[in-house]
Write a structure and sequence with these properties.
Chain lengths: 254, 263
């Protein structure tokens, strides 16, 4: 477990730094003529370690966000006063607080107030998961509340049971409407993992910063980082658009 | 028999159904006419148990529902089914899928009951989605309503008339004992209306009770065994189809003359 506010070099040395120094030694001689792709190849193990941390972080955020958000959204749609409205108020408040401020506040003041020290990775995962839970809950609750009751009535008068209506009518319509939006939110959450670097989580952005501090080639290093994110996010965005085009048909009738 | 006894329903402090008694015999076609906002659609929803009356009683053959309800008894859907003016077709399914889904689920349910009772399946339904007899009925209805050319379309790709036919077929193929139709002819041409009329007559001869809300007086004249005129949540006049030609109530006379002159 990392120690909050501890020695950064010590952390780097334990995980990313080792790979970084190995990569560095291999290429110190030709550092002056390194291109973006050279950087990607030369520091591949450091980038790979950073990406691994980013993916671990993103997976936690996605898992907690999608599960918790779906649950909170569904419960909020059913019990509007006790769950729906409070959750909407929290979501509205959170939307007014920059992610970075929220992250810093949970990392430094809150832990100081409570007298605890929490691993920055866990702090980042929890902070972004909370944001994701409320973002997902907003979408789910909105779609469920706006679900046209006439489709349920049509199912009832055709003799369908509540579970048959849920499985064959409600879920397919709700999923078609929510999956592309939820996917977009998850891509945004993946990009938000970059903020974790600011509380010393050795995710991909922090690795890029460390590489840059070694070779001082900000244009090439951050372009390489951009390319990595493009390679990850573009297919996800493409998938979201494809799902949107395939399933979110225009339901409006002539 | 489908019967509503002393039904009362209020909304926002106003009675929208005010002490209404109505009954529909098996094999009878009853037509409800009346101005907009007179409570026709609400009455249909109450009779189909889609909305609960504030007080009164609904009898559907052997099932009795007393309101206010002491317990929630399951309504006998789709033995009593409704086709609404807004149609309520499921937008993610094609018209054919809309029609077949309730049938498929019913067949699946029958098969699971047969399995639980360890009875040999009554047909080769275990390998098909819909029972063969129901599939034949479905094919006949699609042909009768001339739907072959558009049955694979999604609701938003079909015209209102085509959607009305699909919604009607979805209800008819389930073979309900009581069929409640709310303004389902509003966007159909004369030929389609005539097909529906003759089909409804065939249904009534088979003992199915049909209750229709319509503004088409000629359709009502042709179809109705019984005519009910509603206004302001009350039944003003009811009787045989002679009500349409020689009503006794001034309100009915006035309404019918307006409709006659408009058409």
């Amino acid at each position: 477990m990392y120690v909050s506010g501890g020695n950064d070099e010590h952390i780097i040395g334990r995980r990313i730094g080792g790979a970084l120094r190995d990569d560095c030694r291999k290429t110190q001689s030709n550092a002056g003529i390194m291109s973006v792709f050279d950087i990607l190849i030369t520091y591949q193990s450091a980038f790979a370690n950073g990406l691994l941390t980013t993916f671990q972080l993103a997976l936690m955020i996605w898992l907690i966000g999608l599960t918790g958000g779906s649950l909170l959204g569904s419960i909020g749609a059913r019990w509007k006063i006790f769950v729906g409205i409070p959750s909407r108020v929290i979501s509205f408040t959170l939307s007014g607080v920059p992610i970075l401020v929220f992250l810093f506040w949970l990392h430094y003041p809150l832990q100081q107030l409570l007298g605890v020290v929490i691993d920055p990775f866990i702090t980042a995962a929890l902070t972004l998961s909370i944001i994701n839970v409320f973002a997902v809950a907003d979408v789910i609750r909105g779609v469920l509340l706006d679900f046209p009751s006439q489709y349920i009535i049509a199912g009832k008068v055709c003799g369908m049971t509540s579970s048959q209506i849920l499985v064959h009518i409600q879920l397919p319509i709700v999923l078609r409407q929510t999956v592309p939006v939820l996917l977009m939110i998850q891509v945004n959450m993946l990009q938000a993992t970059l903020f974790a670097s600011l509380i010393s989580v050795n995710e991909i952005f922090r690795v890029a910063q460390q590489i840059n501090s070694h070779i001082y080639k900000p244009v090439e290093v951050y372009t390489a980082l951009g390319l990595l994110f493009l390679a990850i996010c573009l297919p996800l965005n493409g998938l979201a658009l494809w799902l949107k085009a395939k399933f979110t048909r225009d339901f409006s009738e002539r | 028999m489908l019967q509503g006894i002393q039904l009362v329903k209020s909304a926002r402090g106003q009675k929208i159904i005010d002490n209404v008694d109505v009954q529909l015999e098996p094999g009878q076609i009853s037509v409800i006419i009346g101005p907009s906002g007179s409570g026709k659609t609400t009455l249909i929803k109450l009779l189909a148990l889609l909305e609960k009356p504030d007080s009164g009683k609904i009898v559907i053959d052997d099932h009795q529902y007393q309101f206010p309800a002491e317990r929630n008894e399951l309504p006998p859907w789709p033995e009593i089914t409704v086709v609404f003016q807004q149609l309520f077709l499921w937008p993610h399914l094609t018209l054919l899928q809309n029609i077949k889904l309730p049938l498929m689920l019913r067949s699946k349910w029958h098969r699971s009951v047969e399995r639980r009772a360890s009875v040999a399946p009554t047909s080769n339904a275990s390998t098909t989605n819909v029972q063969p007899v129901e599939q034949r009925r479905l094919d006949d209805l699609i042909e009768l309503f001339d739907m072959q050319s558009f049955v694979q379309r999604y609701p938003n790709e079909a015209s209102l008339g085509q959607r009305q036919r699909a919604a009607l077929v979805r209800a008819l193929v389930l073979q309900p004992r009581y069929l409640l139709l709310d303004e389902i002819t509003s966007s159909l041409d004369v030929e389609q209306i005539s097909i529906i009329l003759s089909y409804l007559k065939r249904l009534s001869k088979k003992g199915i009770g049909v209750l229709i809300v319509t503004h088409l007086l000629n359709f009502a004249r042709e179809a109705a065994d019984r005519v009910i005129f509603m206004d302001a949540g009350r039944i003003i006049e009811s009787g045989g189809r002679e009500v349409l030609d020689s009503p006794s109530q001034e309100r009915v006379k006035k309404f019918l003359s307006v409709i006659e002159s408009a058409s």
